[in-house]
Write a structure and sequence with these properties.
By secondary structure, this protein is mainly β. It has 5 helices and 52 strands. The protein starts with 5 loop residues before the first helix and ends with a strand.
């Protein structure tokens, strides 16, 4: 991979350096205090000095109240604090027991007493149940919840779905906010971008098990609406996580969890399988120098064996299935063995400067890695092995320039190298209505990324205004090898034709010139600036107004096809202007009621995965061969192998070419929300909100080398045999023309931890429509009629009418804790498809089923509902003042709900009236033991805390 020419990075770098005194994002993974100093009559106290002290580390910050009594202390580490307030003519007032959580500003009202006694006043803090000045709507997942709630894979991202309006895809593990594509969400850890530059979503390709040690996560915040201009690169939601740090006291834990076949029920298809999982690890943190320097280390290892069953599709009674194929059926095993390490060091350089350094390392190894479902019609040799190595280093410097001005500078370097190797070096064999044999036609694959990120921030408070300014620069290097049919693919229309070796079709993609032609390499840059002002208009009324600009410079192909302009350029998007407005109003004086309103524009990045095929599939870099074009290829084949070289004299088919529309831009959402929060008691809050998200410019891919079709009697578009450009076949153009809309009513009842229990209950009633539901679609083009896209509008693949989740932790006394998670949602849509091309466009993916003589609409059917109930019972034994050993039993999916579904793309092979598919409308997939909703399991655990 070549280095980026210096001049191509010069402008973004200069802009980033110029903004060194501007603020990056609220992705800082920190919190803040804000408040007012008052005298006994309620008048503002000017010039009060407030000393803020972290009770865990001794970290100190001094601020002063302005003429109106207001003060603010931004970018504070999450933790417990005490206040000491001094002012001329007033007693010293001390406030204890204040706790900061990530992403929120805690409001403090300091009532100073007149001088007259030498004694100070100490008051126990009593934080309000609702934040009267926060304009965004979010959910915080506390350290208590993370430590006590059951979770299958120790992947902290799974807790995100314990928020209203959020779900985690059961197939790829991406986070879906407000019905939008998961690739357009944003995850940050301690302010550093934690997203996959190639495929979107969180780093690591959204693997089923952890990619970051849960032991290192202290708490996190899920912003679902009203994010200020500080937050970018998302059109829907934002996850803001903060890690643990060392304190003056040494603390840590060690744990071990076990699941095995004796503790696992039969799967969704009634089979008792040999599951095995061992998870172990721990953490330790303490002081290198009291009140000055601290360390924290966390490491985890997962040894996971996931069973799955190869079960080919049912055949008619008179069909003979060869014995060698029957022998491929039965139980198989996939493995996923990740190792994760996190190291953090914090130093108080002086009273005005603090330094944070962090390092992450993840290593993953897996065999037979395609185990998303415990039953599949893909033989084990057609799976692949997986290998991943990732590292990241981050440095952050916080500098208090004066009591009103604070700067934070942050940088990170992160790498993620992933490879996927096929189990066998033969071609793939697809037998329609039966299953898949041979090898994995899409492997080998390579996904390599390197990220360089620098951002800087400045916070300035003056009177009733709290201003944040910022910039952020991301430079990403990519390398990706991913090609369809790279080892070849044989198609047979029936098991009988397979038995007789009557090949219906053979396809393969080969390098046009040299092997590296099918590897995409490039770089991209992202730059952002923003300004946001939070203004206390009057008591109980806060206005937030901001403007954000983002630019994305994309990699450009070095080898282009001069005959097609669409292959020469991947458009940059330098026009992502995003105004944001928010208002919070707390009527009355009780502070128990808050109304939050927000509106704004939000732009998402385009993952680099979409760029590859413009580099490698432009008609010259890679060449696709097809027996339908030249049957002379068939005698050259040695079944089941593919071709190693392009045969001379072979007539190749009209090539499929990929390109980008000249006006392609990134997705942009218009979002508005209204939320009412009511404190029912000091610790119990009810939230009722409405959220609207309408997204334009979503990516879709269409064949733009077709003549207009005619509709037959069933309503099926039939394309003419010829093409406007007869020198090529499919012309796949990436366009930003798709649209999605979401309307949701969100209800939340939250009880924060007190009186030995906490809980949160969320319910969402919503509707999501779109005209394209793809997620980083590499090959498929599902549009039925490229000349009439209005017929594509239907319920989205992510449409969930009813979405319910609840979590709870009860301290029953005697060292016994009972906790649980319930996730239930109505079925998402699926589409019936014929499974092969009947339209004459060379596309097998867009031929929808014909039912009762008519072509069915997209996503017209509903999958079964999803239900998962996980419970944990834990007994703790004290071994002294600060040492506890706990034994636990966790039950996952205790109701044993099947949770069957229709796979990644939500489709069911229906066949045609003359060639029906026996398994039509049967959900053939279900979550594995690594996923929410997998087979019922009991997990036994042991944990030592010190």
């Amino acid at each position: 991979m070549s280095l980026v020419p210096f001049r191509r990075l010069l402008l973004p770098a200069l802009l980033a350096l110029f903004s060194t005194f501007l603020l990056a994002q609220s992705e800082s993974g920190s919190s803040a205090f804000q408040g007012i100093a008052l005298d006994p009559s309620g008048a503002a106290v000017k010039g009060a000095t407030i000393l803020i002290v972290n009770e865990e580390t001794g970290y100190r910050r001094r601020v002063e109240s302005g003429a109106d009594g207001h003060f603010a202390a931004p970018v504070l580490p999450v933790g417990s604090y005490r206040f000491e307030a001094k002012a001329t003519g007033f007693r010293v007032t001390e406030l204890k027991g204040l706790r900061l959580v990530v992403g929120e500003a805690t409001n403090v009202e300091l009532k100073l007493q007149l001088e007259g006694s030498a004694e100070s006043i100490t008051v126990a803090a009593s934080p309000t149940a609702v934040d009267p000045e926060q304009t965004s709507t979010s959910t915080s997942i506390s350290e208590k919840a993370i430590d006590t709630l059951p979770v299958r894979g120790r992947n902290f991202v799974e807790f995100v779905q314990l928020s209203p309006g959020v779900m985690q895809e059961s197939d790829r593990g991406g986070l879906v906010f407000a019905g939008q594509r998961s690739i357009n969400s944003n995850v940050a850890i301690d302010g550093a971008d934690f997203n996959d530059g190639l495929q979107g979503n969180q780093r690591g390709g959204n693997q089923a098990t952890f990619f970051f040690p849960q032991s290192a996560v202290r708490e996190f915040q899920v912003v679902r609406s009203g994010a200020t201009a500080e937050v970018g690169r998302t059109n829907a939601g934002f996850v803001n996580a903060v890690t643990k740090s060392g304190t003056n006291d040494v603390h840590g834990d060690l744990f071990y969890f076990n699941r095995n076949r004796k503790l696992t029920s039969p799967d969704a298809f009634g089979r008792k399988l040999n599951n095995k999982q061992n998870q172990f690890g721990g953490s330790v943190g303490g002081a290198l120098r009291k009140d000055k320097a601290f360390y924290f280390v966390a490491a985890e290892q997962n040894l996971l064996r996931v069973p799955f069953v190869v079960k080919f599709q049912q055949q008619a009674a008179n069909v003979v299935v060869p014995a060698e194929l029957k022998a491929l059926e039965g139980e198989q095993h996939g493995t996923n063995n990740p190792t994760a390490l996190f190291v953090r060091q914090d130093t108080a350089i002086s009273d005005r400067h603090s330094l944070n350094v962090a390092y992450t390392f993840t290593r993953m190894r897996g065999q037979n890695f395609n185990f998303d479902s415990p039953q599949q019609d893909i033989a084990a040799p057609a799976n692949y092995s997986y290998q991943s190595d990732s590292q990241g280093g981050k440095v952050a410097l916080v500098s208090v320039l004066n009591p009103r001005l604070l700067n934070e500078l942050r940088g990170q370097i992160a790498t993620d190298f992933r490879t996927e190797q096929p189990n066998a070096n033969v071609a793939q064999i697809v037998i329609t209505g039966f299953g898949t044999l041979g090898s994995d036609t899409g492997r080998p694959r390579v996904f390599d990324t390197r990220r360089y990120q620098v951002n800087d921030n400045l916070s300035y408070s003056t009177g009733r205004h709290f201003v944040r300014l910022g910039s952020d620069l991301n430079v990403n290097y990519f390398a990706q090898q991913r090609e369809s049919n790279i080892q070849g693919r044989y198609d047979f229309t029936s098991i009988a034709n397979y038995n007789s070796r009557t090949i219906s079709r053979f396809r393969q993609t080969l390098p046009g010139f040299k092997p590296e032609d099918i590897i995409f390499t490039g770089h991209g840059q992202e730059l952002a600036f923003y300004v946001n002002d939070k203004w206390n208009l009057m008591r109980g009324v806060t206005l937030s107004a901001g403007l954000r600009w983002e630019g994305q410079w994309n990699p450009q192909p070095e080898r282009v096809n001069p005959a097609f302009a669409a292959t020469s350029t991947i458009p940059n998007d330098l026009n992502m202007w995003q105004p944001r407005l928010g208002l919070s109003w707390s009527p009355g004086t009780s502070g128990k009621t808050v109304i939050r309103m927000s509106a704004g524009l939000f732009s998402a990045r385009t993952p680099a995965n979409l760029f590859q095929r413009v580099f490698t599939d432009n008609g010259i870099s890679a060449v696709a061969v097809d027996s339908r074009t030249d049957p002379a290829i068939l005698p050259l084949l040695k079944f089941p192998a593919g071709l190693s070289l392009l045969p001379t004299g072979l007539r190749v088919p009209l090539q499929r070419i990929f390109g980008f529309q000249g006006n392609f831009v990134n997705p942009q959402s218009g979002q508005m929300s209204v939320t009412l929060e009511q404190a029912l008691t000091r610790d119990l809050v009810l939230s009722v909100g409405y959220l609207r998200n309408s997204t334009w410019h979503l990516q879709r891919r269409l064949d733009r080398n077709l003549f207009a079709p005619t509709l037959n009697a069933t309503g099926m578009p039939i394309y003419p045999a010829g093409r406007p450009n007869p020198s090529i076949g499919i012309l796949s153009i990436n366009e930003s023309s798709a649209h999605s809309s979401y309307d949701g009513l969100l209800l939340t009842l939250t009880k924060r931890y007190s009186k030995r229990y906490l809980f949160q209950v969320n319910y969402t009633f919503s509707k999501t429509w779109d005209d394209d539901s793809n997620e980083r679609n590499f090959s498929q083009e599902p549009a039925l009629n490229t000349y009439d896209l209005t017929g594509q509008r239907a319920y989205s693949k992510q449409d969930i009418r009813h979405n319910f989740n609840a979590s709870h932790t009860f301290d029953l006394g005697w060292g016994v804790t009972f906790s649980g998670i319930t996730v239930a949602r109505s079925g998402v849509p699926y589409t019936r498809v014929i499974g092969f091309d009947t339209q004459g466009d060379g596309n097998d993916d867009n031929d929808r089923a014909i039912v009762n003589g008519k072509v069915e609409a997209r996503n017209s059917m509903r999958q079964p509902l999803f239900l998962d109930v996980d419970l944990r019972l834990m007994k703790s034994f004290s071994l002294g003042e600060r040492r506890v050993i706990s034994v636990s039993a966790e039950g996952f999916n205790v109701t044993k709900h099947a949770n069957r579904n229709f796979g990644n793309d939500g489709i069911s092979a229906f066949g045609s009236p003359t060639a029906p598919v026996a398994t039509a409308d049967r959900p053939l997939f279900a979550p594995s033991t690594a996923r929410y909703g997998g087979p019922r399991q009991l997990q036994l655990g042991l944990k030592f805390v010190f």
